[in-house]
What we know:
By secondary structure, this protein is mainly alpha-helical. The protein has helices at 15-18, 35-56, 74-79, 83-93; strands at residues 110-112, 118-120. The N and C termini lie far apart (37 Å).
Amino acid sequence: MTISHRHVDNALNPAWRDAAVHLISSVSWDDTIPEDEAEKAIASVTNGTGYALRQLAPDSGVYYNETNPREPHWQWAFWGPNYARALSVKPKYDPDSLLWCQHCVGSESYEQQKNGSLCAAF
């Protein structure tokens, strides 16, 4: 965590500068449970626990390496008010959108297919 009240011009969600607590919630299961049960567990932590935490602290954020891949408001959660600027500079440094990952800046412009290929989202 980087607690600082000085303005720092970077992409880090400013919520990290004011954080007093880093809270992690999780759900686990073994690989013998049916897929639909695993999906229910994921939905519960995303739409139950995650929802409650977002209501409790709507201006907070998440740590990218410990996030729920189904985070519904990931642009805000990862970058907060910095997302728009990060998206605006992406074409300068990655004009062909070669740098892609789920929930990276600009990733909502593409949809990953089941075979792993990327297609433009419309």
